[in-house]
Amino acid sequence: MTQNVTQVNKLLILGALIRFQSANFQFNYLMELQMTEQQASKNGVGVQADVAGAQDFDFVIGNWRVHHKRLDNMFSEDKRWVEFEGLSSTSHILGGAGNVEDNLLYFPDGAFRAVAMRAFNAQTGRWSIWWLDGRFPDKVDTPVVGSFKNNIGLFYADEVIKGRKTKVRFQWDASMPNNPKWAQAFSFDEGKSWETNWTMSFIPQ
Asked: What domain of life does the UniProt record list for this protein's source (predicted)?
């Protein structure tokens, strides 16, 4: 009987030591992670979420239903618009100074997925936005770059699309947080005139 009690006591002590070591490891890991983040911030590596401008896209974090309206052929004189629905889910990355948006688009000729990735540059105060169409997974579009002012975000890039030099503009309207809107426009005359070819209206799920 005494032997059994002694064995039980040993097991209890061993269990307590394991729990203590595990808790100590977790504490040390968290402290080391915090120190690493602080050192990275001092060295200018990475971005804290409270830097001015780093929260510009927080309005779109979450899950959304999206109503799309798009020119059927962006490079034709035929200005027929098509409308379709979609789903979108956006979450933070880079410690809050970036986000990734996963999209499901119910195109008239078949559904597909696409991803938008956004990252904030604290030194320039500007955002870069990349778009990846799931139908062409080996091609990431040239990032559009820009910033927000008075809840309107404007982002630009120079592209060659179907052999034509094209200026691309993304516009975000965050003036209504429960119904943000996005629009894409192209310019073929160095930005003198713009034609909107795709809009999205976001509604919370």
From this structure: Bacteria
